[in-house]
Amino acid sequence: MSPKKSNLYALLGLFRSATPEEVRRAYLKSAKKLHPDKNQAPGETELFLDVQQAYQVLVDPQRRAAYDATLPADEVEQVFRSPLDCKIELSRPSIHGGKDKQLVYALATIATSADHARTAKTPPLNICLVLDCSTSMQGPKMEMAKASALQLIQRLAPEDIFSLVRFSDRAEVAIPASRQINVRRSEMQIQTLTTGGGTEIFQGLKTAIDEVQRYNSPNYVNHVILLTDGRTYGDEQQCYEIAKIAASEGIGISGLGLGSSWNDVFLDHLTNISGGSSMFIQQPDDIERLLNEKFTYLSRAFAQSVDLYVEPAPGVSVEYAFRIQPESGVLSFGEVTRFGPVLYDEPLRVLLELSIESDRTNLRSLDLLTGYIESTVASVLTPVPNFPVKLSVMVDDNAVPPPPPPAIMQALSKLTLYRMQEKARVAVESGDYEKATKHLQQLATHLLSQGEKGLAKTILLEAQHIEQQKTFSESGQKQIKYGTRSLLMPGNRVS
Fold first, then answer.
1. At what angle do helices 264-272 and 236-248 cross, to 10 degrees?
2. Cα-flanking dihedrals φ and ψ of residue 449, to 5°?
3. What pLDDT digit, counting tens, does each position of 166-224 carry?
4. What are the residue boundaries of the structural domains of the chain, listed by start?
5. 343-356, pLDDT tens digit by residue?
6. pLDDT at 494 over 50
7. What's the CATH number for 8-75?
8. I need a surface site. Which of 58, 82, 193, 334 has the fewest CB within 10 A?
9. Domain 125-299 superfamily per CATH
10. DSSP reduced 3-state for 369
């Protein structure tokens, strides 16, 4: 593919309206994916040189203007056939004027395009399993973790890269990152794992990220899977900082918490920094099943990452961000919000709750968010064009808003139960135990009406525990949180 025959904007996945910063970002992404040091496939070196030449033209204002003058009149704006379909719906087209607080919900749905879904080639994996080997893991926990790790190795494809790190109050690489793992040798290395010491997650996490970084490439799904049963103390902020670095390098982090003693607030925040998620493993016997589910999930990734870059308008804030599917969980909204991967056979859906407190007097319309969605797709050599985001509403005191779109109504109805347990948790933390028990009793009533008798019983027992002990039990709190979260997963009906 030669620049003489190809639109330079198309080579970088850009529209003609792209800013200089967007040109630079697109070039860096493409160069990282196509660099000859990491790619030797036929034709990719030539494409890398073409991308370099396209960048040199488009980053120079004079050369870019001269190039634009050569484009045909009907090519004023490049039209792309993106591998992803992106859509954002608002809960209402208009709001009232004045200064009172109003809420608007935005639902982003991102899916593999129909053409690519039929021919989707999922990228190989570059994963590191990092196992907590502290004293508390001894016995059935460790034995099941070993067996599950070995089964994971047996599922690897020839092109996959795997590594294993053990940690307690120090960390070491048990299986270095490599392709075509020797199963017999790996089994011996896994069987020699022993328990002892405390839990310092930063040590294990840093070592695991270093292993993934050795072969880190946009052509792979680069991911760390952390399995722990305990709490880390004093190094939480270090964990968050290294997770941010990993996310900027395209490395995701998932956490599996075993038993009741681990810190779910910490693990939730740690994982969603990179668009990952946390999971609750109640019994050692569940390790194998949930670890296999995580492996299958990563194996179905089409776009390794989807990131939202937006800036709210003055007086507008994002109060809540939640990924509905494919793996549900609260997201950390910021300058960049990591949505996570898009699967080739399942869409990504994220719900944003926008709070509007600006003065709308004499305004006819109001911009809420402005920015773009950026994604990385390994099977597409050139960068995927950013999806522009500009959410606006009309300001009209006389308008009667239509009902919210069905997709948003469904998302809100699913999320309601999860947010009930969040409110109960906040009430306990503030010392309002009566309010907490009322939230839990309401939640149990809703679940009973939907046939979720087991979870409803757990919630009612926890309400009694709060009345008596003035706190959640560690086990009950996690059962309720992850139980209501599981109801959001596709296939679970919530009315």
1. 20
2. -65, -20
3. 999 999 999 999 998 888 899 999 999 999 999 999 999 999 999 999 999 888 999 99
4. 8-75, 84-119+302-395, 125-299, 406-486
5. 999 999 999 999 99
6. no
7. 1.10.287.110
8. 334
9. von Willebrand factor, type A domain (3.40.50.410)
10. strand
